[in-house]
Amino acid sequence: MNEIDAVARRAADAAPAFAQVTDVRRAALLDAVADALDGAADELVAVAGEETALPEGRLRGELARTTAQLRKFGDVVREGTYLEATIDHADPSDVPPRPELRRMLRPIGPVAVFAASNFPFAFSVAGGDTASALAVGCPVIVKTHPGHPRTSSLTAGLVTSALADAPAGVFQTVAGFEQGLALVDAESIEAVAFTGSMRAGRALLERCTARPRPIPFYGELGSLNPVVVTPDADAARGAELAAGLAGSFQLGDGQFCTKPGLVFVPEASVLEAALPAHVAAGEPRMLTPAIAEGYETGRQRASAIPGVEVLAGGDAPTAPTVLAADIATLLAHRELLDEVFGPVTVLVRYRDAASLDAALGVLEGSLTMTLHAEPGDDVAGLAEWAASRAGRVLFGGWPTGVAVSWAQHHGGPWPATNTVFTSVGATAVRRFLRPVAYQDAPASVLPPALRDDNPLGIPRRVDGVLRLP
C-alpha cells in the first residue's frame, strides 16, 4: 500500500465513527480549531507574510475570517436544519398508497480538499472546504498548495492538535503534484473540492469522472465578474465609480476570484476618464511565479487584440492595467473574454441598450455580476439576465469581499463552478451530504434526527408541515 492509499484508508476507517459524533461535539471541535489558530495568530501571520508577501493587515483579516467561518459552521450543525429531516407517516389513502418514509442527509465519507494559492488561510488547510466537510462528519485530506508550504504545515499541526479527541484519521494533509492526483484516484475518497484555475479544475473534474467509480467534483474555477454601469449612473457618479472599481480590481493585486474583470460603460463615460488616475504604479509581487507568468502572458495577449487600447498601466510585467475596447471588438474577438488572473480590468464601451444586450448575450457564467444604476433606471431585464448567468447579483458596490453567512452563495454557472453548490456560506455543507430515506424502519434503528420524540430538538418537516422545536 503506497502513502496516499494509506492516508485514504485511515480516513475511510475514521468515517463511520466520525459520522456518529454528535453535531454538538463536532461543533465544539471546530471551535477548538478556531481557538488554536487564533492563539497562534502572530506566528501564522509572520510565516504567511514571508511566503506570500501579502501585507500583515490583509493576513490578519483573512485569518480572522477563517476562524469565524469555522465557528459559523459549528453554528450551522448545532441549529440542525442542514439535515433536512423529513417525516411522512404512512397514508394508505394517498395515491399511490404511502408507506412510512423518513429522510435525512448523511455525510458522504472522506473528502479531498485542494488548497488555493490566493488565500493561505481562508481557502487553504483550515479553510471553508475543510470546515464545512468536518462540520457534517466527513474526514478531510488536504492537498496543500506549494505557494505557502510552511504556512500549510504550521496550520496543519495546529488543526491536528485541536482534533486530538476526534477519531484518528479525520484530518490529514498531503503535498505534491503526483500525490494530489493519486489522492483523487484513491478508492476511499468520496468527493473532491477545489478552488483554482479552470485548466487545473477541468483536469481534476475529468479525473474524478474517469475513475472506475466516479465521484463528485466541486470546483470553483474561472470568473470575469462583469459589471454594467448605466448611462445615468455614469453621469451621476462616474468619478466615484472609477475610484471604487480601481480599489476592487487592484485589491490583493487582482488575485481574487471575484475581481471585476469586465466593465460595460457608456461611450465617452465619466468613469473611463477618471479611472487612470486611480491605477497604481509599480510592479507588485504576485503570490507565485506561475501566477505572475500567467498574468503577464494573459495581459499581453489581451492587449495585442486589434481594437484594444491600453488606458493605464502596463509598463511592467505585473503592473496593474486598464484595457478598453468597443462592443464590435469584443464580439469579433471572444478571446477578450478569457480570464486574466491579476490586476487588470477591461472596459467595454457600449452605444445603446441594443449593443449592450448583444455583448451580454455572449458572456458565460460568473460568480458575480454587478449593476450600477440610478433609482429611475429600469434594470429589471438586466437583473433577470444577471441572475441567469451569475451566482450573486450586486446592486451597487463591488464584488470583492465575500461574506460568510446563511444567505451567501459563492458559485455560478460554468465556468465559475461546475455545480449548483456554493463554496462559501452555510449551505456549503450540502456538498458533502447525501440523502437517505428509511422506509417502515423500526424505531430502534432510526437516527436521532428522525425519531418521533425529536431528541435533537431540531426543525423538521412532518407530513408536509415545517415544525419548529
Summed up:
It is built from 14 helices and 17 strands.
What is the spatial order of strands in the main beta sheet?
A: 10-11-12-9-8-13-14
- In DSSP terms, counting alpha (H) and pi (I) runs of 4 or more, how many helices? 14
Low-confidence stretches: none
- Mind describing the biggest β-sheet? 7 strands, mixed
Number of strands: 17
- CATH homologous superfamily annotation of the largest domain: Aldehyde Dehydrogenase, Chain A, domain 1
The CATH topology name of the largest domain reads Aldehyde Dehydrogenase, Chain A, domain 1
Shape: globular
- Label the structural class: alpha/beta
Q: Would you identify the CATH architecture of the largest domain?
A: 3-Layer(aba) Sandwich
- What's the level 1 CATH class of the largest domain? Alpha Beta
Count structural domains: 2
Question: Strand share of the residues?
Answer: 15-25%
N-to-C terminal Cα separation, in Å?
A: 48 Å
What's the pLDDT, averaged over the residues?
96
Provide the gyration radius in Å: 24 Å
| Helical residue percent band | 25-40%
